Amino acid sequence: MKIISILAKTVEKKMKRLHQSVTLCAFILACGAGASAVTAAESGATAKAARAKDAVCTACHNESWPTPVLSIYQTKMGNKADPRTPSCQDCHGRSDTHLKSPVNTVDVYFGAIKPAALPSDTWPKTPSTAEARNGACLACHDKDSKRTHWKGGAHQVGDVACTSCHQIHTAHDKVRDKKTQPEVCFACHQEQRADIGKISHHPIGEGKVQTS
After folding, report:
1. In terms of Cα–Cα distance, which of 70, 78, 75, 80 is closest to 44?
2. Which residues, other chains included, contact 139 with Cβ-Cβ below 8 Å and sequence gap of 6+?
């Protein structure tokens, strides 16, 4: 009987510990769920505020606009739940004169091709300087370690703009895809295009070379 009593007490202690562990786990899970709910709510509020800010521009530049500008929302640049995501005006400037009259260009114009449906007198003729365009990009991307070779490099010295190569308002930026990157580079680098056809060459055409 004494042995049975000892066993009963041992089982009771283990059951109490198990109950405490289960209770603790439930508490942790509840806290996690609560934190997730708060995070989701904050993300939702951030996204709503960001869309409201963009609405100043997308009221006109919407799904009926001749060029697919809304495709940016399919990219990281358009992830409105991320507080780091820029608004239209973060890149193009406040553009007060453009808002008053569409004939006036935005503060930073990146040089998009005029859609055939729009009259020439409503379309900016000259893109902003490469310095101004790159300044809009580097306001954020200069903090990225991948840009370490930009300053003083051939592209910066040659007044090449980031958007001369990169496409922003598209879900597929050809420069960021190693299969399509060479065709963008070869638009300027004609000598290198010829070199990859030689017997001894860098395997660019085989998709084995990609810039960072």
Report:
1. 80
2. 90
Amino acid at 158: G
Instruction: Locate 192 and state its tokens.
Output: 């290198």
- Residue 93 CA to residue 90 CA, distance in Å, equals 6
Q: Give the pLDDT confidence of 122-163 residue by residue, as tens digits.
A: 777 789 999 999 999 998 888 766 776 788 889 999 999 999
Residue 137 CB partners (closer than 8 Å, separation 6+): 91, 162, 163
The 10 Å Cβ neighbour count of residue 202 is 12
* Full domain range(s) for residue 212: 172-212
The length of the chain in residues reads 212
Nearest to 135 by CA among 169, 172, 91: 91
Mean pLDDT of 28-46: 57
- On whether both 133 and 195 belong to a single domain, the answer is no
Pair 165, 176 in one domain: no
8 A C-beta contact, residue 83 and residue 45: no
pTM for the model: 0.67
If asked whether residues 181 and 166 sit together in one domain, one would say no
129: tokens are 């300087």
C-alpha span between 187 and 165 (Å, rounded): 10
The 3-state DSSP composition of the chain as helix, strand, coil percent (nearest 5) reads 55, 0, 45
Place of tokens 């406040």: 94
The verdict on 161 and 183 lying in the same domain is no
What type of residue sits at position 26? A
What is the total count of domains within the chain? Answer: 2
